[in-house]
Each structure stands twice: as C-alpha cells, then as structure tokens.
Amino acid sequence: MKVFILRWNPEISSFKKKSHNRILKMLKKEDCFLDWSVYDWKKVEPGDAVVLCQVGTEYDGIAIIGKFISEPYEGDSWRKDGTRVHYANIHIFTAFDRDTETCLSAKLLEPLFPEIDWHGGHSGIVLDTKTGKIMIAEIDKSLEETKRTPDTNFSTFLKNDNRFLPIDFLDKKAEIFKILEPYNPVVHTWDEPDYGEWLDEDEFFIEVPNKDSYEPLTITLYDRQITLYWEGWHQHFDATNYDYEVFLERLKGLLENRYCILKAFQQKKMQKNQKRRTYEEVAWFISTQTYTKDSDIKKIFKEFAVIKKDFPNICRIKIVYWDVERSFTVE
Fold first, then answer.
1. Is 186 helix (H, G, I), strand (E, B) or coil?
2. I want to staple 219 with a disulfide (CB 3.0 to 4.6 A). Which of 108, 206, 212, 301 is the partner?
3. Domain-ending residue, one of 207, 235, 255
4. Domains in the chain, number
5. DSSP three-state, residue 23
6. Does residue 23 contact residue 145 with C-beta atoms inside 8 Å?
7. DSSP strand E in 190-296: where?
C-alpha cells in the first residue's frame, strides 16, 4: 500500500469550500466519496491511502483522509482548459474543518515532515515507504488524542474496510450459479446468435424461469455491471465488494420470498363508449415487508407515500412474490 499526498487550493479548485462543508455533515450519517486528479496516476492502485491537504490558505493542513477505490481513469481537466487529466475515486474515512480544527494542521505537521510541501505543489505525489508509514502512524495518533474516530483508526480502515474496493464479477460466477442451480437457470453467452451482438466473451445473460411469472427473473453481467431484473423492477450493481453482497441478498431474498415487488397502477382516462376500466402501471419497487391477503391496506399504501406525490391517482397495487401464490391486487 502506498500513501498519496493530494492537494486542494479552495481558491482555484472546482471543489469549493461549500462542497467540503457538505462532506463534513454527510460523514456523520453515511459513507462519502470523492474523485480527484492525480499527478502520479500510473502508480495508483485501489486500496492506496489518500491524504488530501488544504493549501494556499491561512489554515493549511490535512482536510480529508481516505483510500483510492478505483483504477485511474482519464477525463476532462477540472480547470476546463481543454486538457485531459487522470482521476481516481476515493472512499473518505474522515474530514477536517481547517478553519476551526487544529488536528493535523500544517503548523503541527511541518516539523515532523519537512520534506513535504504543506502549502502547494502537485496533487498526487507518492510518499516513500518509510515516510508513508510514519504519516499513517501520526494520523492515528492525532485521531486518538482528539477522539475524532473513537470506533476505529485510519490504519484499520485502510487494512480492513474493503467494501468499496473493485472486484471481478467473473470470479463470482461459480457462487452465483450454485445459488441458482435449484431453479434450473438458462445461461446465454456471447456465442449465441441473439446475444453475441451485445455480450462480450466473458459476459452472460441468465434467465431463471418461473411457471407462474410472465417474465423470468434475469441476471446480466454486462460492461462490468450485474443487473437483476424481474417484473418491471431492476437494480444495477457495480463491481465492488459492497454491491456484490447487496446483489446476493436481493437475489436470495426474491427467490426465498423474503422480498416482493410492489407495483402501482392508476386508472386510464375512459374513452367514449368504453365500458370497462383500464389501468396503467406507473411505478414499482422492491419491498422487504411480508404481506398476506389480510394485510393492512394502509400499511401497503404507506410504502407508496413518496411515489404518490408524483402519482396521486394510484388506485391499485399489485404485490408479486416468487412462489405460486405470489400475487394479488389491493384496491
């Protein structure tokens, strides 16, 4: 694992103070991510440590620490000058308000790391191995002294929090097929006439038939994403440890009837001489609630509280399970 020093000058960067302040608030309740240009991009590997420093201000110092969670990729420069630069995605461990906090300030770090420019320079410089280890140890020490992250430290995060590191879905094929085996899946690959135009050699399209469902449950590995699709509902999963675990839970939950699909319908406008009402499907999503024919109707409609703001005329809900008695309609 390498340690990269990134630099951020709020006066010239496209990443402004208000964006940093937003991250400070969001970190209290959820994981946060960032992409950043890297000077030594050829050396970046997922899992490398990131130390992003605020420079060019009255209160310079470390503003964000985290780890890279992607390979570097090319994009238009943040300077908007027509040039191209390389970026990498970052999973943020914690962030600091340099205007109010003294923890890990440039004033405190300069005597310990005189070889590092704490007030300017390229963004994305790799520290030598010895300095990198000392840097992580100093960050751990400062976090412990200030009680900033009482449940863990930076070095533990770098070593153990691999939720958002990339994986290769092809390495998971055997596990996926084993889960699907009892359901007689039909696997389609690139060498079939109807699939070769859009599937690459290592990609696949799986159909899991169900005699009581008009459409099979399908799983597609395409363009480094897995997509799970059933009864109009679908969800994309990126090639990360975290998304793969969510995918497995969704898949097993549907097949084991722990999840259901809720579909909402609204009545179509009656045409002249039309005798029967007709309905159109307007929304659907996955639910972990367990419903029976005696379910409380208010409980079901509560799931659609947000959707009803966009579709106030919802009058019918269909609840679809994987098993034989998987569906019924509530009006």
1. strand
2. 206
3. 255
4. 3
5. helix
6. no
7. 204-208, 217-222, 225-230, 233-238, 260-267, 279-287
Residue count (the chain): 331
Query: Could you tell me if 84 and 16 are in contact, meaning their C-beta atoms sit under 8 angstroms apart?
Result: no
With a cut of 50, which residues of the chain have pLDDT below it? Answer: none
Task: Measure the CA–CA gap between 108 and 74, rounded to whole angstroms.
Answer: 35
CATH of the domain at 75: 3.10.590
Q: Which amino acid is at 3?
A: V
Enumerate the β-bridge partners of residue 40.
none
Q: Which helix (H) or strand (E) holds 139?
A: helix 129-146
Query: Could you tell me where the beta strands, DSSP code E, fall in 27-150?
Result: 33-37, 49-54, 61-68, 73-76, 84-95, 125-126
Question: Is residue 71 domain-shared with residue 113, that is, in the same domain?
Answer: yes
Q: Is 50 exposed, middle or buried (0-12, 13-18, 19+ CB in 10 A)?
A: buried
Return the C-alpha torsion angle 143, 145, 148, 149, nearest 10.
70
Instruction: Give residue 34's pLDDT.
Output: 96
Output the six-digit token pair for 104: 């890990």
